[in-house]
Amino acid sequence: MLYFFLSYAPDEDDIFVHRLYQDLSAEIIRRIGAEPQQVVGYLDDSGAGSWPVDARTALSDCQTFVALCSSKYLASERCGRYWGVFVDRIHGDGSDNGRGADSLIPVLWAADGLPEDVFHEPDLKVRPLRTPNGDDLRIMMRLRSHRAAYAAFVASLAHRVVEAAHAHRLPPAPAGTDPDAAVNPFDRRRHRHGVAGRSTKVYVVVAAGTREQMRAIRGDLRFYGLRREDWAPYQPVAPQSLAARACGIVSDRRLQSEVVPIESVAERLRAGLRRDILVLLVDAWAARLDDLEPALREIGRQDEEAVAVLVPASSDDVETSARRVELRSEVLKRFPGRSSWHDSLLRIGVESPDDFDADLSVAIAAAQRRAYRRGWGEQRPDPSRAGARRPVLEGP
Predict the structure, then answer these.
(1) Pfam families under this entry (predicted)?
(2) Is residue 59 part of a domain?
(3) I need a labelling partner for 161 at 20 to 30 A (CA). Which of 25, 40, 188, 251 fits?
């Protein structure tokens, strides 16, 4: 039996997709007591070229369809047709679709502005699967601190796959089924949600001092430059300014970014971020600068906005390490609403460039979810969907 077909958009973090495929296969093999070399799943890693013959066969015979959902997946004609063929198999089964629908397993791979219900099938009771903390799966896989959560997710997914495959056997697709001729249901959904026209912008703000300002506050000035935005707390390991590094992470998530002066933040927040995100990079030492106090106080009051705050504390910065507890306390005083913030939106004591990259990715994903919940809530409801339930992401 082929237990699962893993579907994902080409060039979508391929290394991590392959790792998920291998981990999921190993967990399923362990659960069913099969030989280690037994093939229990299929991963189409042929890219965007022609349809592989084995992919057609696997799509016809697999008992579950695991889709790694993202905006890129939604835009992929290939993924849409794969999805359509499998949904047709469920509809063509002729039995209770409430049971067969468990075989269709959407997984949130990357939010990236994706509406929560875009992968919902109106005629099927589809149960998407979420990670333990609700984070994007691709982000969770990158973090060493989330290894236990990732293992729990793989176990949950394997349980769902095995349970669905054994509880309700789907018959093969009809002979001659051609993915090229299948209907792509995502075409209509993209148009309905207007996904392609939506754009989230990430505003990067640096709360740090210039070298001249910091002379009166600390002794080691090598991390500072002529402008606030020149602050590079991880040098010499990472000499690039933190603002430039942050913009690179934003670009990796296929979002637009702009570095804006901290003096403009108060007005921007009063106007409302709507679907946009604010990333504040804070030097704990600079919390002592009087000219930063108003902006930090204003940001600290924005508990409901999509505001992510990261406070680096390089392990190579001896002076900062020696005053770590004192500096942390001063930072927290600038954010009186800290207790109500989701942990992933406030990262204090980020010790290395790699930790910064991972923490910023997680924070942006969390801020996106908050921004899009707010953004979609502002839209006028569609009368044709009145009374429709939003899908609840749950595990087995």
Answers:
(1) TIR_2
(2) yes
(3) 188
